[in-house]
């Protein structure tokens, strides 16, 4: 009884301290409660009236686009491969607690509830098995001896993720890039843009911070021009004139539209990554460079061994938010008439009469998928920030 | 580590040649090499570009397409493509200026709210950031378009007592329309503004000299409103209300007229841009306020400032120093993101250019036009913000 009394007293105290400190605060609290209540009731009304058949019928289109029948296994393989990488990375580097597992589990359940069918139940079970076993293995069974080695292997496979994705999609008479679509296309475009844009951005960032005037001016010009026009404009340019600019060798000038989107996204990402890296380079105290000089290191050695490791460490959060922005920007490929996730979600209810007026349901699922990926990445970045002690003095 | 064996030998070999040993020679020769390489690439691109049809003369020919939104410029499909382009530019400027204004207000309020001691308020702000920052802008634009198209049809438009007309064709709000006498009133208002600015400067100076309170905000404000009111009475209220109306014409179709029209496309784009960019501004404001030393807040509390005074007089003016540079970046992002209007057919600069490209080709020159326009818009915004920044950082800490 006393315990309950204490809890209620504490609860009242907390409410008074946090919600009703002053008259103004109380008023704001009441207003917000009314506002939130209104929004919540609205949303509830929508959920009650919602008809999710538009999503149920078009699951496949949303996830894989026009990928020909019989090729679903490629999608599963990509999912499994990335799950292995993600879970073993969590096992080796991360320190998740029960709450994180619960959140991941609930979100995955929601996703499978939306997109899973009775036919794919075995695949889903395999996915869970594949996701958890590398984590437990790396956490509990991996010998200390092999720890460093497995880290190296993991980093290497993260770098190789794009070629592996593309091999999985193309091997054994696979579908042509034109037929890639849905969420798969978003994931592939984003990873290509990041993986190809990062080295290019690194070079450009170093170039902009270089002491050679010619290189500096050229890099600055490149970065500013690319950042000057919006991404849709660059994509439109690629759609119309990129083939003219590619050399007439090995059919290079007849690249498919997906490849054009990849090229433009990588170039665009590189300019933004370069700016982030330049910020990191500027944050390194001048003493570091002078110390390297005093030790007799050459410019190349001091850049790659002294300056860059520190600079990249500082800008990891900013880099991850650039990656998130690139991932969100992959939805702009609508201008190239590619059917990415958003376009599928937008066009289905417009084209099939039975789904008229059901755009919001489809769009909500699309937004949810984008949101899940972005929020996981931003969570990752804030964890990295904490783990590395960036911004803590 | 990065010096392989061959590379090392190469450098040793260069070191042996005396004039190459000079750092300056090496630097210059390396740059010349790079310049040559760059020249080759540029030559390649230019030679390829010359195969295309360059030139802007096609912009003088008839456009041949209509635009749903025209503002300031009277544009019809018989006008030249130049005029279509300028209509697009004005539409872009219109959405960007309104968007920037609203984003700033929203971001500042949400950023301060994020740090509020009221649990509910700070949670709301956090939730707003977490949800809207992590969904693509394009999804949000499409979402708002669907929401605005779900408004009632025009046959049963919401009229709120005959003053507005809200339907899925757009929102019409009452607007003022100028009389001929409006020019005189406008001149009076300008004079009132000048007088109150002069008064404010004068009173501020006197306050600093004498060290006593002279109500340097209050008196000019009263002055301004007093003179404006007098002008209003003098000219005999120089404008009338333009109230929107919905009526059926002889064929039974509903027509809306009058008022100021906010179309669904414009509103969808504005809502999405403001809410999306607002999340980033919120984070900037929050970060800048948090980076201030805690002593500032405590000093303000010790001086007995109210929470409003604390934020407006002590916290925000200092935070503004670190807010403005990243804020400029967000304004530029908003401007560039407004090109996504193409997805909901709001005829902004980019959509007009795309239509021209689709109709007539000339993709490369039209792309240069887009690039040049966005660069100039960015430059103007940066210039204004730099001026503001200079004003803010005038006093050194």
Describe the structure.
The complex is a heterodimer of chains A (393) and B (397). With 393 residues, chain A is mainly α. Chain A has three domains: 2-49; 69-174, no CATH class; 179-393, Orthogonal Bundle (MetI-like fold). Chain A is built from 17 helices and no strands. Chain B has twelve helices and seven strands. Chain B has a domain at 81-157 and 263-392: MetI-like fold (Orthogonal Bundle). In chain B, helix 3 runs antiparallel to helix 10 (307-337) and helix 5 packs across helix 8 (264-291). Chain B has 397 residues and is mostly helical. In chain B, a hairpin with a 5-residue loop joins strand 5 (245-248) and strand 6. The interface between A and B is large, with 52 and 53 residues.
Question: Topology of this protein?
Answer:
The complex is a heterodimer of chains A (393) and B (397).
Chain A: H1 2-18, H2 23-49, H3 53-57, H4 59-64, H5 72-93, H6 98-115, H7 121-141, H8 147-159, H9 161-170, H10 182-208, H11 213-228, H12 231-245, H13 257-283, H14 286-294, H15 299-329, H16 341-351, H17 359-388
Helix pairs in contact in A: 5-7, 5-8, 5-9, 9-10, 10-11, 10-13, 10-15, 10-16, 11-13, 12-13, 13-15, 14-15, 15-17, 16-17
Chain B: H1 5-16, H2 23-49, H3 81-114, H4 119-133, H5 137-149, E1 165-167, E2 170-173, E3 175-178, H6 182-210, H7 218-235, E4 239-242, E5 245-248, E6 254-257, E7 260-262, H8 264-291, H9 294-302, H10 307-337, H11 349-360, H12 363-392
Antiparallel strand pairs in B: 1-2, 2-7, 3-4, 5-6
Helix pairs in contact in B: 3-4, 3-8, 3-10, 3-11, 4-8, 5-8, 6-7, 8-10, 9-10, 10-12, 11-12
């Amino acid at each position: 009884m006393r315990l309950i009394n204490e809890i209620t007293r504490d609860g009242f105290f907390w409410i008074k301290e946090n919600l009703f400190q002053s008259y103004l605060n109380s008023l704001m609290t009441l207003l917000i409660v009314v506002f939130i209540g209104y929004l919540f009731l609205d949303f509830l009304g929508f959920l009650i009236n919602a008809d999710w058949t538009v999503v149920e019928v078009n699951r496949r289109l949303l996830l894989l686009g026009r990928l020909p029948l019989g090729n679903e296994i490629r999608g599963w393989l990509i999912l499994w491969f990335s799950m292995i990488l993600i879970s073993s990375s969590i096992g080796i580097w991360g320190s998740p607690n029960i709450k994180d597992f619960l959140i991941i589990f609930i979100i995955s359940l929601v996703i499978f509830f939306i997109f899973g069918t009775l036919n794919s139940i075995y695949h889903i079970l395999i996915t869970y098995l594949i996701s958890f076993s590398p984590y437990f293995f790396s956490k509990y069974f991996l010998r200390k001896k092999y720890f460093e080695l497995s880290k190296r292997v993991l980093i290497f496979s993260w770098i190789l993720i794009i070629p592996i994705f593309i091999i999985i999609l193309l091997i054994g008479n696979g579908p042509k890039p034109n037929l890639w679509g849905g969420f798969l296309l978003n994931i592939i475009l984003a990873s290509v843009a990041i993986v190809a844009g990062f080295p290019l951005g690194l070079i450009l960032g170093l170039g902009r911070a270089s002491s050679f005037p010619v290189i500096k001016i050229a890099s600055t010009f490149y970065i500013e021009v690319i950042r000057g026009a919006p991404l849709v404009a660059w994509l439109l340019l690629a759609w119309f004139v990129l083939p003219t600019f590619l050399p007439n060798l090995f059919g290079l000038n007849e690249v498919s539209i997906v490849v054009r989107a990849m090229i433009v996204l990588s170039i665009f990402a590189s300019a933004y990554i370069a700016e982030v890296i330049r910020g990191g380079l500027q944050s390194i105290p001048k003493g570091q460079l002078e110390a390297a000089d005093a030790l007799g290191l050459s410019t190349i050695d001091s850049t790659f061994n002294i300056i860059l490791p520190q600079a990249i460490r500082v800008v990891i959060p900013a880099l991850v938010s650039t990656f998130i922005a690139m991932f969100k920007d992959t939805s702009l490929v609508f201008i190239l008439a590619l059917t990415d996730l958003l376009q599928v979600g937008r066009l289905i209810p417009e084209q099939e009469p039975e789904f008229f007026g059901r755009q919001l349901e489809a769009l909500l699922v699309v937004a949810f998928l984008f949101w899940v990926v972005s929020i996981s990445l931003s969570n990752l970045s804030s964890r990295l920030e904490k783990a590395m002690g960036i911004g803590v003095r | 580590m990065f010096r392989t064996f061959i590379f090392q030998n190469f450098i040793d070999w260069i070191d042996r040649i005396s004039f190459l040993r000079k750092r300056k020679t090496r630097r210059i020769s390396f740059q010349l090499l790079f310049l040559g390489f760059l020249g080759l690439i540029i030559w390649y691109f230019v030679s390829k570009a010359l195969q295309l049809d360059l030139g802007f003369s096609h912009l003088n020919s008839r456009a041949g397409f209509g635009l749903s939104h025209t503002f300031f410029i009277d544009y019809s499909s018989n006008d030249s493509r130049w005029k279509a382009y300028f209509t697009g530019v004005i539409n872009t400027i219109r959405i960007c200026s309104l968007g920037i204004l609203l984003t700033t207000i929203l971001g500042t309020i949400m950023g301060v709210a994020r740090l509020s001691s009221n649990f509910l308020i700070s949670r709301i702000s956090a939730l707003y950031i977490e949800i809207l920052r992590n969904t693509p802008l394009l999804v949000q634009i499409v979402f708002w378009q669907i929401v605005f198209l779900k408004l009632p049809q025009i046959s049963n438009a919401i009229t709120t007592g005959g003053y507005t007309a809200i339907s899925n064709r757009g929102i019409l709000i009452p607007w003022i329309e100028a009389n001929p006498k409006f020019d005189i009133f406008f001149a009076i208002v300008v004079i009132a503004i000048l007088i109150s600015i002069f008064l404010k400067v004068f009173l501020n100076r006197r306050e600093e000299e004498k060290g006593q309170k002279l109500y340097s905000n209050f008196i000019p404000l009263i002055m301004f409103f007093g003179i404006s009111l007098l002008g209003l009475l003098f000219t005999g209220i120089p404008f009338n209300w333009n109230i929107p109306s919905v009526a059926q014409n002889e064929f039974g179709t509903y027509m809306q007229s009058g008022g100021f029209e906010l179309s669904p496309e414009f509103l969808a784009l504005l809502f999405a841009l403001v809410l999306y960019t607002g999340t980033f501004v919120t984070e900037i404001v929050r970060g800048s306020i948090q980076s201030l030393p805690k002593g500032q807040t405590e000093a303000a509390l010790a001086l007995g400032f109210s929470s409003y005074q604390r934020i407006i007089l002590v916290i925000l003016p200092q935070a503004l120093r670190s807010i403005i540079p990243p804020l400029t970046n967000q304004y530029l992002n908003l401007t560039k993101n407004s090109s996504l209007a193409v997805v909901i057919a709001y005829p902004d600069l980019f959509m007009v250019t795309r239509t021209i490209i689709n109709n007539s080709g000339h993709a490369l020159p039209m792309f240069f036009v887009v690039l040049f326009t966005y660069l100039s818009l960015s430059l103007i915004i940066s210039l204004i913000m730099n001026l503001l920044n200079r004003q803010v950082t005038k006093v050194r800490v």
